[in-house]
Amino acid sequence: MKKTFNANTLRPFLMENLVEAGCDEAGRGCLAGPVFAAAVILPRHFSHRFLNDSKQLTVNQRNELRLIIENQSIAWAVGMVTALEIDQINILNASFLAMHRAIEQLTTRPDHLLIDGNRFTPYLGIPHTCIVKGDSLYRSIAAASILAKTHRDEWMLNAAIQFPNYEWHSNKGYPTKAHRKAIALHGATVLHRRSFRLLE
Question: Is the pTM of this model over 0.85?
């Protein structure tokens, strides 16, 4: 059973006087599909009782929050990097590139970036701070995690229609037993990451 969190337990900002964008990715560990990232600038006093790391929320909670975040954010954007690009530059660099693609679409330029994780490639002179498990500490990163996750899940649901044998409607491209079994039976698709270990 999922817990309900109070957004008041998350920090509204790291640097009070700067416009901060939270950034997070989704899909790094998947065998198929793109990696997605989101960048979000929230209003100072934004709060919602469900707001937390997307992995701690139900599908319905994430979908509800996606609409609220997209409607109430000062600015938000989502970037993606394809499976082919992942194979060319590796998943870590692809995650950074997806964040860059999200940041460059923001309609408001942030003064500072809050990055979920411990590494990041700097983006065009905007200072950043890496925060391990930042999606459970800062509201803007939590919001970014929700947008990245929901946009990627939506993309994989559409891909599942084209490639029905791999159960992406349920596993979203992650390495489940059913997914690996389907790869063994049907082979890899153009959406699989060939640089990943697809079979056990």
Answer: yes
